[in-house]
Design brief:
about 45% helix; 6-stranded parallel β-sheet; about 15% strand; about 350 residues
Length: about 350
């Protein structure tokens, strides 16, 4: 081997060694952080999946939820995003509004309603459509459907991988749960040799085993860097993204049309928004936000659709703050998405009144 070739080989190994060493040290650093919150939740705390409320990615929980919805009682499915699944300034024993509402319904001796809920962070209307249509494909009976509407959640149009071909993940093993011929086999029952090799490498390379953690933290770093450079914070105005907005509106319309076609009711509501009632600044262009509410009301002008505007029901003092989304760790930012347990109780009580009025008709 020539001296020149040896230098090239040595340099290659040195680069690999330094790369893995750097990744190892970074993993050690982020693993020591015990106060890391889920991305996007700020200082709010994520509630755990249970009998009444499931994170959409907890497939076993959703499977049990389907069984509950198919019992003889009249049922309600409530969908949501992290406003449902997280509580600001959390204290031990507190529960989210969907869980609170389910318990209140169960306490009424004459109640014949079963309420169950599924949530996923930053849920788009397109993802709500994927979850709902997959439940129907699983043979789930949904007597009443409740959907919260967030302008912020119309800014994306991708369906995340965890709920792609969702019915193949949540249906019981019967004919209805078999993926169509043109669908990708997400269960990996017959992995290819390439897939087997990938898994073998991932299991035996200690750095690569934590690649998802590295990816999530690096994405968080890029997100923080962008916010710092562009001076973006939680109060910055979010403009409508036309293509994504149209995609999400069409997804919502598909849900409502499918419900209308079988004469099943749907309740949609404008979700609570900090500062709207008090008249202070909100993170949207006011005209765009008002147009959004008007358009949602028009979409719901059907016989079996009921529209409610709940954006002003939670007082400002029932919300909270979150850590800065830039590198300025001194400042706190207003959290426009997550409210305290008191806020969860207010929303639970309001939804309870709405459901009682609708069930009496």
């Amino acid at each position: 081997m020539t001296k020149k070739s040896f230098k090239k080989l040595f340099l290659s190994f040195l680069i690999i060694f330094l790369t893995f060493t750097g990744l190892y040290l970074y993993l050690q650093r982020i693993s020591k952080k015990t106060d890391i919150k889920d991305e996007g939740f700020g200082n709010s705390t994520v509630t755990k999946s249970n009998k009444f409320v499931c994170n959409a990615n907890n497939y076993d929980c959703v499977k049990n939820l389907i069984l509950d919805l198919n019992i003889p009682n009249k049922n309600v499915l409530l969908l949501g995003n992290s406003q449902l699944g997280a509580i600001n300034q959390f204290s031990k024993g507190e529960i989210n509004y969907a869980h609170h509402l389910s318990l209140n319904i169960n306490q009424k001796k004459d109640s014949k309603i079963t309420l169950r809920s599924i949530w996923i962070p930053n849920a788009t209307f397109g993802e709500f459509n994927e979850i709902y249509s997959s439940l129907i494909n699983c043979g789930t009976r949904i007597d009443n459907l409740v959907i919260p509407l967030f302008l912020d959640d119309t800014r994306e149009q991708n369906i995340r991988k965890s709920i792609e071909n969702y019915s193949s993940k949540i249906c019981k093993n019967d004919v209805n749960s078999r993926p169509a011929k043109n669908e990708i086999n997400t269960n990996q029952d017959n992995p290819s040799n390439s897939d087997k090799l990938d898994q073998w490498i991932l299991k035996r390379t200690f750095i690569l085993k934590d690649i998802s953690k590295l990816n999530n933290n690096f994405r968080g770093f890029l997100y923080t860097t962008r916010n710092t450079i562009l001076r973006i914070n939680s109060s910055s105005k979010r403009k409508i993204v036309p293509a994504a907005y149209q995609f999400n509106l069409e997804s919502l319309e598909r849900i409502l049309e499918s419900r209308e076609s079988i004469s099943m009711p749907t309740i949609i509501y404008i979700a609570p928004l900090l500062h709207f009632a008090s008249g202070k600044e909100i993170p949207y262009l006011k005209e765009e936000y008002l147009n959004f509410k008007h358009e949602m009301k028009n979409i719901c002008s059907k016989q079996y659709c009921n529209f409610f505007d709940l954006d002003s029901i939670i007082p400002d003092e029932k919300w909270g703050y979150k850590n800065s989304t830039s590198f300025n760790k001194i400042k706190k930012e207003i959290d426009f998405m997550h409210f305290t347990y008191d806020g969860h109780k207010i929303l639970s009580n309001k939804l309870g009144i709405i459901l009682n009025n609708k069930s009496e008709k």
